[in-house]
Amino acid sequence: MVRKSKLLGMFIGSLLIGYSSVSFAYNLDPYGGHWEKGVDYTYSIASSISDEGVDSIVLASDQWDTIRKKKFSLEYSGDRNKQNNPMENINGENEVFKIDMGTSQAPANARWKYSGDIITEGDIILNSSRNLSNSSKPSKTAYHVPSIMVHEFGHIIGLDHSDNKDAVMYVSPAGTVKYQLGKDDINGYNAIDW
């Protein structure tokens, strides 16, 4: 229903304005999931991730905390977890960890657990078999960790992929540096039914 309303709103908006430069390209979690309003999502980071990787992950989560009038908070606990088994990832803890998922898989994935439509746990898995880089200027074949992590934290919050190429929630290729939120990302965040 939300998606139909969004599409109808885009059509009517285009008619009223006379052009389609006003678009709502963000997409919310297809299952309608989100965290409770006012929750502090506290996460740990795997001990197998380098200190530079930790800095990249914290930089990424901090991007979402820059939203004015935020309804949700992402906080690094300062703890390092020993998570290394994907079968153990639903354990009541919010974790960022790294495992080898193979080169045919994405550079990172988000997984979450629901209770009704409320997300109660969210984990992010970095794929160690992909070329990951913490450098501010990664090679064309490397995935920029802050960029992929801000994208994955967006999934943890309750956003799906965006159709807007300027959004961090747009699926970008290797070599892309895009970790600062765009207007579409913020609009998507504000559209979540907190």
TrEMBL record:
Q: Could you tell me which residue ranges the Peptidase metallopeptidase domain spans?
A: 31-191
Query: What does the record list as GO biological process?
Result: collagen catabolic process; extracellular matrix organization; proteolysis
Known InterPro entries for this protein?
Answer: MetalloPept_cat_dom_sf, Pept_M10_metallopeptidase, Pept_M10A, Peptidase_Metallo
- One Gene Ontology CC term in the entry: extracellular matrix
Q: Does the keyword Protease apply?
A: yes
Where does the source fall among the domains of life?
Answer: Bacteria
Gene Ontology molecular-function annotations: metalloendopeptidase activity; zinc ion binding
Cite the SMART domains for this sequence. Answer: ZnMc (SM00235)
Coiled-coil regions in this chain?
none
Where does the record locate the signal sequence feature?
1-25
| Keywords assigned by UniProt, alphabetized | Hydrolase, Metal-binding, Protease, Signal, Zinc
> Know the name of this protein?
Peptidase metallopeptidase domain-containing protein
Q: Which organism is it from?
A: Brevibacillus parabrevis
Q: What is the lineage of its organism?
A: Bacteria, Bacillati, Bacillota, Bacilli, Bacillales
